Amino acid sequence: MGHPFRDVAIVGVYNTKQARVLEGHDTQSIALEAALGAIADAGLEPRDIDGVVGGIASNFLYQSRIGPAWRSMSPLGIPAVIEGAMAIACGLANTVLIATGEAGSYRQHASTAPWTRPTNEFVAAYGMFTAAEFALMARRHMHMYGTTPESMAHVAATIRNNGHINPEAVYFGRGPFTAADVLESRMVADPFHLLDCAMTSEGGTALVLTRADRTDDTAKAPVYLLGGGTDHYGPSYQHPPVWDLGGVRRPDLIAGHVGRRAAEEAFAVAGLGPSDVDICEFYDPFSFELIRQFEAFGFCAEGEGGDYVMSGVIEPGGRHPITTDGGTMSFSHGGASVQLFQRVVRGVQQLRGECLSSQVPDAEVAMCTGGGAGALFTDVLLLGKDRP
What we know:
By secondary structure, the protein is an alpha/beta fold. Helix content is about 30%, strand content about 15%. The protein has 11 helices and 11 strands. It is globular.
């Protein structure tokens, strides 16, 4: 059989302005701005769209008066991209818009974000907010393998420095940072210091997929989906995470390695492996997550992630540069659906060679992820310049 996404291409991406607070915007208006930006980036017009993904994108159909169209309510980043690609591959749509945004709905920046603190009897009563949940997974890894706070701080400093030089990042110009700066910031949930953690902000983002045979009419070089998948172990932020949860199908497929199965399947479909990846646009809710992902995806052995990230591979010019726009620690953390989508947008920009900062020269393959062990899910997507 041929590659399932051979006839699908990403032809448009767009990030709106990202900021701690976007005055004059609400969630609908910033998502609409993102949608129009991605369509324009593709060199298309709204009437070219005949499929939409996401609750916010549906409003685009009404505002632009272009229905009827295929529609999905998928709210999250990589699964939304995969679902949109499947719709095109199955002939349900020709050109699919995925758009999301958030503004004006969360202004309590002194507290943890509302999507990370649901009212649940197993978390609320014990202060089990997101940082604590991810900290439990990090502490278990430290106990088993001797992973150090210094290795996590090195990850955080690297990502924050990527944002420091990115003029589009919310925290542009806030650095540069050293690992010592991270370790000297206040403790949030042991072992995470403040600078090990993501921020909160507002913004919109969007992406356009179309049939590969239509890319001659688009404005930018197409980027292709080489493989992808998603691993889930349960609802996010409702139960204290347990490293050893799972293991039913294979002893190593546990929550501590969430994303392993998805990565294996993505690599198998693409006919690639970790050594073929040029850019690691890994989701970065907390610094330990990148150490964990490198192990789960097979870039290094279990327990070696700390030493791996300290070896120079994750820095600009390294073999596997990470989260090149500054991620959720520095670029933006604009709501539950927004930040899970932005790793894909940055991956596309890298493969097009059009990043304003931290452009990786001659990149051919990008690996994009979302989620993490503390949230009991991880999504994986492989992007490439060449059609599979």
